[in-house]
Amino acid sequence: MVDSRFYPPGRNFSIAELAGFLNAEIKHGDGDASINGVSSLADAALHDIAFYNDAKYKNDLSATKAGALLISPKQDVDISDCPSAILHVENPYKSYALMAQKIFPEQALAKPVAGIQKEPISPDSVIGDGVDIGYGTVICAGVEIGDGTTIGANVVIGPGCVVGRRSVIGANSVVQYALIGDDVHIHPNVSIGQDGFGYAPDLSGHVKIPQLGRVIIQSDVNIGAGSDIDRGTLEDTVIGEGTKLDNQVHVGHNVRIGRHCLIAGQVGFAGSSIIEDYVMCGGQVAFNGHIHVGKGARILGASTVVKNVPAGQEVAGYPAQAASEWRKEIALLSRLLKIRKPMKSK
């Protein structure tokens, strides 16, 4: 559900109006029903539109409460008992992106966080006791900052954000669409809550998907200098309690990192990865999107993780595999190189 603390209500359209905009055929349901939101299949409510384009979400499709669904006529699904209106479109993902832009046009434009504000600290913000605020910092309307927090110079905290008690936000950092817990240390030049990298690919031009989620940073988290954490598309991007991120870590949209993880520098998490508690990750590791890493797993530096990692396993290499097997392969290659006969020159 879109958080009204950060986003204005979506614009209302009838299903028939949306079908006309997409040049889509209504195959099932009431064209007069109203739609004012977008959602995933699992979380959709009566006034939301969602899309279906992958058989692995068939269970979500059968249980969805969406008011309207975007489905390709090529999909083999039974819609006879579906309570949702069905709009047949050639590319459901692209059509969803266009619907999200139409219902939430302001987010499609990705306007600057602060907008026009006459005073650096909005009178509509709530600042706790003992808060130190550096020179040049901008705090927008609806912001709440807990007691004893320190905010460095030239920080921007966007509308509606919450920062807990005794936290530190380093100079030149930007925080938007975020809820931040107590005792969080954000080092300088960190960006939190900017648009995730979301586009529906299409040969006629890629279509931007409005990012309508939030960033949730739980208590006792450390975020290293130069790191960036994208807000979610619809779901939240989450950093769990006690997790420590080194410098220049990128966290893509919808990523969920568990509690007490240790993430070394220059690690990149592609969108919708799930990292469970107590995971340790060496520097420069790359995670493919939609990866699930189990509790207590260890990822050696410079690995590329392209498939799920079981709980407690240590992995390494490109692509990442069990570290014991990776070490055997490296040792074997080394021996082969030593015994290889040199090529005779002609």
UniProtKB/TrEMBL annotation:
Catalytic activity, as annotated: a UDP-3-O-[(3R)-3-hydroxyacyl]-alpha-D-glucosamine + a (3R)-hydroxyacyl-[ACP] = a UDP-2-N,3-O-bis[(3R)-3-hydroxyacyl]-alpha-D-glucosamine + holo-[ACP] + H(+)
This enzyme's EC code(s): 2.3.1.191
Keywords: Acyltransferase, Lipid A biosynthesis, Lipid biosynthesis, Lipid metabolism, Repeat, Transferase
Pathway assigned in UniProt: Bacterial outer membrane biogenesis; LPS lipid A biosynthesis
GO biological process entries: lipid A biosynthetic process
UniProt domain UDP-3-O-[3-hydroxymyristoyl] glucosamine N-acyltransferase non-repeat region: residue ranges: 32-101
Active site: 253
GO cellular component, one term: membrane
Gene Ontology MF term list: N-acyltransferase activity; UDP-3-O-[(3R)-3-hydroxyacyl]-glucosamine N-acyltransferase activity
Pfam families in alphabetical order: Hexapep, LpxD
CDD domains to which the protein is assigned, alphabetical: LbH_LpxD
Subunit text: Homotrimer.
Entries under HAMAP family matching the protein: LpxD (MF_00523)
UniProt family annotation: Belongs to the transferase hexapeptide repeat family. LpxD subfamily.
Biological role stated in the UniProt entry: Catalyzes the N-acylation of UDP-3-O-acylglucosamine using 3-hydroxyacyl-ACP as the acyl donor. Is involved in the biosynthesis of lipid A, a phosphorylated glycolipid that anchors the lipopolysaccharide to the outer membrane of the cell.
Protein name per UniProt: UDP-3-O-acylglucosamine N-acyltransferase
Gene source species: alpha proteobacterium IMCC14465
